[in-house]
Amino acid sequence: MDPILAEGIQRLCEADSTVDAILKFRAEKILNLLEKYIAEIELFNPAYGLVGAKDRNELVTKHILDSLSPLGIILRLLETCGKIQEHLRIADAGSGAGLPGIPLAIALPNVSFTLIERMGRRAGFLRNTIAVLELSNVTVEEGEMEKQEPGRFDIITFRAFRPLDAPILKGLFRLLAEGGVLAAYKGRMEAIRTEMKTTEKYTGKWEAIPCPVPGLDEERHLVVIHR
Would you give the end-to-end CA distance of the chain in angstroms? Predict the structure, then answer.
C-alpha cells in the first residue's frame, strides 16, 4: 500500500467529518482501487502523456489527492440537489486521464459519472481503465463538449482546464440540469479573482472554497458557480 496515498486519505477524513463518514468503512477497497488506477496511469503515461508528474509521489499528491481534496464540498453540493444518491449525475469535462472523475467515482460508487473526452486515445485509456477497475458507475463519452446531449448533469467538474471564458461557460451551462452547479478545480485565490473578473457578467455569483491537498504546500480552491 502506498504510504503517501494512505496517509493522504486519512488526513482528508480527519479534516472533514462528511468525508470520514463516506470513506472510513470502505477505506481498504478505495485504496486498492486507487492503487490499480495509479498503475494504469503509470503504464500508459509514457505513450499517451496523460499527466505531468516526475515520480509516483508527485502523481499521488498532485493528481490523485488533489482530485479528492474537495470531496466534502462536492458531497454537500450533491445534498442540495434534492435527489436520492442513485439518481445524481456528475460529468468530468475534458477528463483526460480521468481526473478528477475516476477518483471521485471510486469514492462515490452510488453516483453516476460521465467522463467527457474529445481525444480518441485518451478516451480509449479511460474505457480500458474503467474495465480494469470494474467501475459500474462510470461511462465515457468521446467527442467535443459542445456536441453532448444537454441538460443532464447535476454537477460538472473540470480540472487543468483552460481559463474560463464566455464560450466555455456557455457550453458547460448547456450541459447542466436545472439548478446544476459547475465545480472548477483552481489554484491561487489571487489568480482566481483575476480570471473571474472577466467572466462575472456570464457567471453571476461564484464562490471559491479552499480545499487543501494533503502533502502539498500550494493553494487549492474549488470554484462553485450555480446555473
Answer: 41
